Task: inverse folding
């Protein structure tokens, strides 16, 4: 129920499975406004070989920042390699701002690599999640890339917050 | 008989008043499309769409049907 003037978020999750082509999905939102119901549309170009994309290659192409021990994993680096002959500018399109921060290089010269960093925010430290971020290039096609983020925590109750010492640590 | 007619007229006008006071729900989606671009197989990607209730009555989201 959404009161007059209120807003809410609708998260659409798409599992790329073993698709090998351009996929479009149109989830339907059914409300008391009645038919015709409204749809949103998502499009994805699922790639089978993410280690050989063009014009950039992202390594790792999935960011798995899982944590199975007591040592806090709250950030992860990734590399973007420009395999084209044109210098490329990068711009962030979407990332889950409440859970992560993503530092993206502003540009990557032709044939060069640049580093980006994924940092988990406080709420994400104690939870398992599967999200993603999307960035865009300034090439002729305006190519977009989406990088999945996965975090699994074996025992969330044992996770220590960074900067907080337990009695045992004194 | 005359009294009955008056009661009916009053009741009918009351119904009309209630109907006109009750608002109409309305949903606004500022954005309806998102392109993920290239994404690897066997992973989950996600995007958040905003939904605004801009009518005169409460918006009830009954369900979202995968497309």
Result:
């Amino acid at each position: 129920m959404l009161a007059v003037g209120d807003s809410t978020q609708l998260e659409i999750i798409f599992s790329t499975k073993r698709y090998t082509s351009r996929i479009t999905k149109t989830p339907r939102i059914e409300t008391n406004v009645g038919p015709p119901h409204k749809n949103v549309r998502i499009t994805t170009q699922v790639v089978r070989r993410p280690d050989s994309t063009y014009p950039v290659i992202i390594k790792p192409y999935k960011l798995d920042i899982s944590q199975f021990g007591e040592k806090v994993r709250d950030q992860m680096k990734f590399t973007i390699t420009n395999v084209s002959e044109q210098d490329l500018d990068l711009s962030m399109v979407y990332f889950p701002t409440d859970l992560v921060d993503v530092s993206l290089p502003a540009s990557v010269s032709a044939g060069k690599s640049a580093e980006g960093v994924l940092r988990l925010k406080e709420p994400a430290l104690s939870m398992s999640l599967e999200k993603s971020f999307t960035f865009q290039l300034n090439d002729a096609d305006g190519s977009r890339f989406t990088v999945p983020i996965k975090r699994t925590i074996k025992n969330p109750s044992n996770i220590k917050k960074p900067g907080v010492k337990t009695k045992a640590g004194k | 008989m005359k009294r009955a007619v008056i009661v009916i007229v009053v009741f009918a006008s009351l119904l009309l008043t209630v109907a006109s006071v009750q608002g109409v729900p309305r949903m606004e989606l500022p954005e309806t499309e998102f392109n993920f671009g290239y994404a690897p197989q066997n992973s989950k990607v996600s995007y958040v769409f905003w939904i605004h209730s801009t009518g005169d009555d409460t918006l009830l989201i009954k369900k979202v049907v995968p497309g």
Remarks:
- Chain B has a mean pLDDT of 83.
- The longest helix of chain B spans residues 2-21.
